[in-house]
Structures are given as C-alpha cells and as structure tokens.
Amino acid sequence: MNNQPELRRRAREAIANGKLPARLPVRTWAGKGGGASCIVCSFPVNAHEVEYELEFETTTFSCTPGTSRVHVHCFEAWQSEATLEAGATFD
C-alpha cells in the first residue's frame, strides 16, 4: 500500500491506539522484510521490500523493544504524523 493519505490516517490511528508513540525510537534498523505484519498498515513486509525495525524505550511505551516493524512508506507516514503530534524533530 502506498496511498499516503490512507497511510497517514492509519499512522494517526496507531499513535492514538498506543501501537506506536509520537516520539523518536531509541534505535532503527532497516533490512530485507521478513514477512512480519507492519504495525501501521497490517500487511506483511515481504522479502522484496525494505523493513524498518523500530525500538522504543519500554518505560514509556508498551511495545517490546525490537517488535515494531514497518514498511518504508508506512514509516514515512508515521514519522510525519508523529512530528505533527509531538512536535518532534526527525533528522
């Protein structure tokens, strides 16, 4: 899925539902998809796609470190929404 308005809507939902925070991850890795479901769009990140793995501090976010996986386009949508939500800077 590469429909930016829809991805941004889903990213806002992920933030609102506590699936992803509106802040920077502690660590981010990128690599070949392993088939895990994207936390934003729920579709699998297949081997021919790039997968971002996001690690957040567990003290302020319920997600276990290393378990948030997203497509590149879903990451971009979440990053845009998180920036708007929290005023964060993603450099």
Sheet with most strands? 3 strands, antiparallel
Percent strand equals 15-25%
Please tally the β strands and state the result. 3
State the shape.
Answer: globular
Specify the number of helices: 2
What sequence of helices (H) and strands (E) makes up the elements? Answer: HEEEH
Strand order of the largest sheet: 1-2-3
Going by helix content, strand content and strand pairing, the class is: alpha+beta
In percent, how helical is the residue content? Answer: 25-40%
Can you tell me the residue ranges where pLDDT is under 50 for at least 5 consecutive residues? none
Question: Terminal Cα separation, in Å?
Answer: 25 Å
- Gyration radius, in Å: 12 Å
Average pLDDT figure: 84
Task: Provide tags for this entry.
single chain, 2 helices, 3-stranded antiparallel sheet, 91 residues, alpha+beta
Provide structural commentary.
With 91 residues, this protein is α+β, with helices and mostly antiparallel strands. Helix content is 31%, strand content 18%. The chain is built from two helices and three strands, in the order αβββα. A three-stranded antiparallel sheet has the order 1-2-3. The longest helix has 15 residues.
